[in-house]
Structures are given as C-alpha cells and as structure tokens.
Amino acid sequence: MRAAAVALVAVLAALALAATGGGTASTAAAECTWQRHSKRVIKHVRRNGRLRKVVRRKTWWSCNPVAAPAPPAAQTPAPSPPPVPAVAPTEPEAEANRLAVKSVEYYFVLSRSKVKAGELTVELNNQGEDPHNLNIQRDGDDGEPLQISETASLQRDVATFDLAPGTYRLWCSLPEHEEKGMHTTLVVD
Hints:
This protein is mainly beta. It folds into 2 domains: about 1-65, no CATH class; about 100-189, Sandwich (Immunoglobulin-like). The chain has 2 helices and 11 strands, in the order ααβββββββββββ. The chain is flat, with a radius of gyration of 28 Å. The protein starts with a helix and ends with a strand.
C-alpha cells in the first residue's frame, strides 16, 4: 500500500510540473524524498446514547528537499570564521501560571495537577451538555469558596485568583453534580 501511495504522489507531482511548464518527473523526484507521517487520533463519539472512544490513524506525506551537491572546493583554504562573542546569560522568562479545566458530565479534566502559588488564571471550558460551575477551596478552609459562575454548554469562562500554597478541592456545586463525581484536587506549591 505504501508503494502505491508513493507512486500516486510521484504521478501527481509529474502532472503538476507538466501543467506549470516545469521539468520532467525524474527531476522532480530527484529533488525531494517523500516521508510518511502518521498520528493516532482519539475521538469521543456518542452512539446509542453512550459515549464511545473511537481510535483512528491519520496519515500524510511530506516532501523533504534533497540538498544540492556542494560546489568543488577552492585550492586555497577558506579563512576561519571570526569568533562568536559570548552572550551574557539571560534570565528565563516567567512561566504563565494558568490552569485549564475541561468539564464534561460528570467529571473535570485539569491541564495540570500542580501549579505555582500566587496569581492563577483559571479557564473553565464546558464541553458537556449541561451547564457547570467551578468552586475552588483550600483543604481545611471553612470560608466562602472561590468560584467561576455557571457556564453554559460549549462555552468558556476565565477568572484569576490569588492562591496560597496548599491542596485545593475543586467541584461543581450544581444539584447532584458533585455526588456524581464532578470533583478533583489541585496542588499549589
């Protein structure tokens, strides 16, 4: 099957070159090597009222140009390149402290399980059929939880919170959502 695909690509390249008035198919084939790529794609599909995982393989081809032969070397040696000046080490850029929370019936998926203490930007992305909200409360804290309000289906909401180090509980406070498993934990160091 791979040989058939390579032959098909070569024929299409030859037709494209002929249509543009370019060279022959043999020169086109000599200028690149074809490389096959594939990627596993997983989709969640609702069939007969149940969520099913469907796994497919996506395949594509790419042309990697072949380098032209180097010109003949001159009789005199080439001068050495000037020394590269030393570059002072720069401070690494601060990593953005963000957390993406995907909500579906009846669970949350966090983009990461640990974040840094301080200002945290949280994005609630509701991929479910029902509205969902997000409550954030530090373990052992009896005060009012931080909250992203009710977000409609296929919508997203973003909020920024200042979190101290500790373990936090995240949950949806809509009726029966937490009881059905819509809760998780987040570690803030």
